């Protein structure tokens, strides 16, 4: 063998060895990454586990807190606010009523012509108006004048299908989804602004009085007959069509629940309210917390970095504002510790709230064999001009879907446990004894999360069933009540109308 040939052979052999070593190292590294990813997922799954026993503890804790919140002011993390709604719509309401729904970047106005049990909603007409951002952080008169002038314009555009009897004032139900201390069915003082609103000089003021003054400035003859929030609006809207609705739940950006309580079971109001009859309680359940809630380091991080640390703990496990953000925290750790997206961590993955719940839901629902939607969404989310997530492997996509599954199902199961807690509190969690008739119980749920995240809502329903058992759950109905909240406020204006005492409403 000549010198050249020997050198070539030696170099060739050395290169083959190096390549083999690289392949082995890559395989070892990638199997190490896989093992680390699997371990992190397993840990997540264990920490988020919601076996039946745990859910029962959560439901019991919810019930205990409900009792405590009803017993005394500040007795619980659950505010259990009195809504002053003691007459839910029955279906008998007739006449023209209006609703105004304020609680986000848009507000909605609605008119509805009610025709009693036989004709129900004869006609309704909604209109959505977006609020210019500068008004969300300006003065009170500016905001309320803007709203009232939209209302006046809406009234001016009324068609002939809507009739207001001569000599009668128009009546409005106001859905105001900010924390309010209610002082009567049609008055309440603002506790604080949330959701990006910050209006000077309004905290501690009566929001109905503010709106009424603005309506008068428009020379509009309209009376605010009911002040409610979206949860109570949902309950009322659903009750109008179904007399057995006794719980309303919101599962959207945030979460809350309201239910019908017997007045004698509200100790903090004894002496202040008649002891007979019923009262709708606004639970503000987003603020529920309990040592039984399964939480993780990811939840801790989310809470610490949130605008309201230590508050709304239940909401942070369940609602649409947070599910995507929990997922982002999980993926970030997987990227850091198990190189889920390759050797470097996509910088965008570090941006809080970049991963919204609708995107999580789209990935979670991906049924394609190669999880194409997951791949596309990840690319859209975390890719960029400079940093680019190359095509993710099927393994990576599967890990992402598994993480979605763990986080969404924990939320849905906890929401179900909350609902069962309410049913327990009002004695609707078991079938009648001695073969008697079990009353039908309907839970109305509204909100984009429940409406669009099917895996979440299916899991919620099946968990309620699992917790109640076949027999009891046969008489419990959980139903979507979308767009209940706007019309609900108009219906409450009708059921609390000033004209009720003078004959027909
Ligand atoms: P809000 O709660 O703000 O009054 P919605 O009831 O419409 O409004 O709920 C909107 C929220 O619902 C969004 O913030 C989002 O978290 C959630 N959501 C909307 N669409 C989807 C979807 N396709 N999948 C999962 N969640 C969704
Ligand atoms: Mg809403």
Descriptive tags:
505 residues; alpha/beta; six-stranded mixed beta sheet; 13 strands; binds adenosine-5'-diphosphate; binds magnesium ion
Q: How would you characterize this protein structure?
A:
The protein is α/β, with parallel strands linked by helices and 505 residues long. Helices cover 46% and strands 17% of the residues. It has 16 helices and 13 strands. The strands form three sheets. It has a six-stranded mixed sheet. A five-stranded mixed sheet has the order 4-3-2-5-8. A hairpin with a 2-residue loop joins strand 6 (180-184) and strand 7 (187-190). The longest helix has 45 residues, at 3-47. It starts with a helix and ends in a 10-residue tail after the last helix. The model is unreliable at 21-25 (pLDDT under 50). Magnesium ion (MG) is lined by residues 103, 230, 252.
């Amino acid at each position: 063998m000549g010198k050249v040939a020997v050198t070539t052979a030696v170099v060739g052999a050395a290169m083959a060895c190096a390549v083999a070593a690289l392949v082995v190292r890559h395989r070892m590294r990638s199997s190490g990454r896989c093992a680390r990813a699997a371990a992190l997922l397993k840990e997540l799954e264990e920490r988020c586990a919601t076996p039946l026993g745990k859910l029962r503890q959560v439901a019991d804790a919810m019930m205990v807190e409900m009792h405590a919140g009803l017993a005394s002011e500040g007795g619980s993390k659950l505010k259990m606010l009195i809504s002053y709604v003691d007459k839910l719509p029955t279906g008998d309401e007739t006449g023209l009523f209006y609703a105004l729904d304020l609680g986000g970047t848009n507000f909605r106005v609605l008119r509805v012509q009610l025709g009693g049990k036989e004709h129900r909603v004869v006609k309704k007409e909604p209109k959505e108006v977006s609020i210019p951002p500068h008004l969300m952080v300006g003065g009170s008169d500016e905001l309320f004048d803007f709203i009232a002038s939209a209302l006046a314009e809406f009234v001016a555009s009324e068609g002939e299908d809507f009739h207001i009897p001569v000599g009668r004032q128009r009546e409005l139900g106001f859905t105001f989804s900010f924390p309010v201390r209610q002082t009567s069915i049609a008055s309440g003082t603002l506790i604080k602004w949330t959701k990006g609103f910050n209006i000077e000089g309004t905290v501690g003021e009566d929001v109905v009085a503010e709106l009424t003054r603005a309506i008068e400035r428009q020379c509009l003859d309209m009376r605010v007959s009911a002040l409610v929030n979206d949860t109570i609006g949902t309950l009322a809207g659903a009750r109008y069509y179904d007399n057995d609705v006794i719980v309303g739940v919101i599962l959207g950006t945030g979460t809350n629940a309201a239910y019908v309580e017997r007045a004698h079971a509200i100790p903090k109001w004894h002496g202040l309210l008649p002891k007979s009859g019923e009262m709708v309680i606004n639970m503000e359940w987003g603020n529920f917390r309990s040592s039984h809630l399964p939480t993780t380091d990811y939840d801790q991080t989310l809470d610490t970095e949130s605008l309201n640390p230590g508050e709304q703990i239940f909401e942070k496990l369940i609602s649409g504002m947070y599910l995507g953000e929990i997922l982002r925290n999980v993926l970030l750790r997987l990227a850091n510790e198990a190189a889920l997206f390759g050797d470097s961590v996509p910088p965008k993955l570090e941006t809080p709230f970049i991963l919204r719940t609708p995107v999580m839901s789209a990935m979670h629902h991906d049924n394609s064999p190669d999880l194409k939607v997951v791949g596309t969404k990840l690319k859209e989310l975390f890719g960029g001009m400079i940093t680019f997530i190359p095509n993710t492997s099927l393994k990576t996509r599967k890990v992402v879907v598994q993480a979605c599954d763990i986080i969404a199902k924990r939320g849905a199961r906890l929401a179900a446990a909350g609902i069962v807690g309410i049913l327990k509190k009002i004695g609707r969690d078991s079938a009648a004894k001695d073969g008697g008739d079990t009353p039908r119980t309907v839970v109305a749920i509204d909100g984009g999360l429940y409406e669009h995240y099917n895996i979440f809502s299916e899991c919620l329903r099946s968990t309620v069933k699992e917790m109640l058992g076949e027999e009891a759950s046969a008489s419990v109905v959980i139903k979507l009540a979308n767009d209940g909240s706007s019309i609900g406020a108009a219906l409450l204006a009708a059921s609390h109308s000033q004209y009720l005492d003078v004959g027909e409403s």
